[in-house]
């Protein structure tokens, strides 16, 4: 049991410090020019918006009532006209001009602010996706795909809204408050005190609101996670849901999660319902009090302690500017909402970013099949048939196993141990349940090695290590004499073809699915080493795809489809049968032409004819490459050069089919059961398997208990 029940993503998310500051440093800085242009344009547009009320006030006093001079803030008096007609024309021009300036700069601001926000969002999304792709399988084993989807979609969008709206609205608010306060104080500081008295009250109300709403946002986000998980489970397991008749149960789960989300959202909105009208009320009060005090002042002279004179024009300016307060203040609750969302999103973005990438190229990694470095290659190796003491040269040459991009395909496991870390945070060396223990064997280029053993013995795990989906916790794996950790992950994985039991197909055409990985994009040749001199233009790729499909015994069924190779297969290939999907996967590997092949033999029953087709294509595929077969049917083993019998993570028997039968151990018993010679496995084997299953079931139950506690 992990000491910390949070998954890696949550742990790193909770560690993120000052997320928005980091966002600006890491993503905002390269786009800072857009932000600066946007801010400046915004300030100009807002300041220009203050001109009409000011000019109107001055014009009233100077032209209509004749009670004041024609002066404007920051404009020298000598520049201003003294004739009433000229004053009127200038006033009209200034009012009209200010609207034009506001319009033009609002446009500039829109372009710049959106450029800034969308560019940052694009970088955040693509960076997060790249980081997600670099993470190793331990991360994905923790079932965090929902969280990642949310980072790539919702969180990137939240940041965009914040960077565009919230940031610019706060700038606008700042300009309005400071600008309006400045103008009011300039014209009549005494009446300004009355008008601006509402501001400290608004600040107090805002502080209260932010403090009260923050924990509610945290609670809301946690239920969003539950809701997403419920939705994702129901969608990804739709077949199970239907076949188990659990639609009602799933509906209830989603309804529960959705209802908690509703409750949490309402608790935020209830505060909003107090805050927003509260702010509007204060702004309205400021307006009403200004009107009352100013009106009294005009009628009866300065009230109470006030001594200055108030003109009608100044009064009009005050009234109009106080009105302008209201709209941006009403935005404050939206700004807070966007700020809270952005902060949380930013934590998630950087949480994902900070998860250490464990499986990546070493600084001096070499290309497998490329130039060999003496210091990273081994000079000895253990024989599959022996106990590991017989060593041979590990650095086989391509000539020994056919040319597959210069990789021969010699594989050696040297005393390999492995334990799955409980989560992506744990150092695998600290995990205590060893899934593989001291496994040593080697396969020469072109050999076929069958892996046999009861379920859970570690067969799949053994081969996942060869693909470096995980790294060994102890020992080493060598391909052509190179430790797999010393070669680039890309060159290693392109040298190892993998046909899984359950084939993954992408939404796209049949042809696109076959060429996925080798000619994913037109004009790209992931493995130029086949030496047939053919180009990678669309026509020759098409030819190769058809050849691969023929080799995989898939050409016939593909040709019978309405659009042949251009037929689109539905999401996850649901429109094809299991046997057809597997043949497409085989065609994909034929095209990849790897030196090493991993076949996870299908357990699902296909009809005899399909099985024969699949077997024939697999035999063809395996002919000139090092092949590892996870053999569920022992008939496969009879054709293999060597079989390794795994039990509980260790190789307990090894040798050819005949040798193993002669040993009369686990293999002979498994063979006996399959061949129908004995009814069942001897009690000791069954007992051992049962113990392991019970242990695992208990573990799973404990885990789900903890999960449900966390949910509560
Ligand atoms: N991603 C994982 N995280 C943690 N434990 C795992 C993971 N995958 C497999 N295991 C555990 O490792 C052990 C070996 O599993 P593995 O899938 O390698 O066995 P296998 O021999 O291939 O079994 P099968 O024949 O049923 O596919 C099992 O106990 C399994 O529960």
Automatic annotation (TrEMBL):
CC per GO annotation: plasma membrane
A GO molecular-function descriptor: ATP binding
Keyword Transmembrane: yes
Domain of life: Archaea
Residue ranges of every copy of the ABC transmembrane type-1 domain listed in the record: 36-341
Chain ranges of the ABC transporter domain: 411-673
Membrane topology per record: Multi-pass membrane protein
One Pfam short name: ABC_tran
Keyword field contains Zinc-finger: no
Annotated localization: Cell membrane
Biased composition annotated in UniProt, kind: Basic and acidic residues: 531-540
Keywords annotated in UniProt: ATP-binding, Cell membrane, Membrane, Nucleotide-binding, Transmembrane, Transmembrane helix, Transport
Residues passing through the membrane, by range: 43-66, 86-112, 170-187, 193-213, 273-298
UniProt-annotated stretches for the region Disordered: 366-406, 521-540
InterPro entries named among the record's database cross-references: AAA+_ATPase, ABC1_TM_dom, ABC1_TM_sf, ABC_transporter-like_ATP-bd, ABC_transporter-like_CS, P-loop_NTPase, Type_1_exporter
PANTHER family xrefs: ATP-BINDING CASSETTE SUB-FAMILY B, ATP-BINDING CASSETTE SUB-FAMILY B MEMBER 6
Protein name: ABC transporter
Annotated source species: Halorubrum tebenquichense DSM 14210
Species classification: Archaea, Methanobacteriati, Methanobacteriota, Stenosarchaea group, Halobacteria
